[in-house]
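Title: Comparing notes on inverse folding

I've been comparing how different people in this forum approach sequence design from structure. To keep things fair, I'm posting one structure and asking everyone to reply with a full sequence. Here's the target:
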């Protein structure tokens, strides 16, 4: 079975729906948003090392 099919099956299961709602809740949290912005800044060259 392809990986994408397994992911689709999981997302339609009760556990998958629960994981999705948890992820959506975390995405709305301002602290989580700040962490993600910090990581993105680091990867985009905000903290360049020579």
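Reply #1:
Here's my take.
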């Amino acid at each position: 079975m392809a990986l994408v099919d397994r992911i689709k099956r999981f997302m339609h299961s009760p556990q998958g729906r629960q994981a999705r709602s948890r992820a959506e809740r975390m995405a709305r949290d301002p602290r989580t948003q700040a962490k993600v912005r910090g990581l993105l800044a680091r990867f985009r060259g905000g903290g360049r090392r020579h």
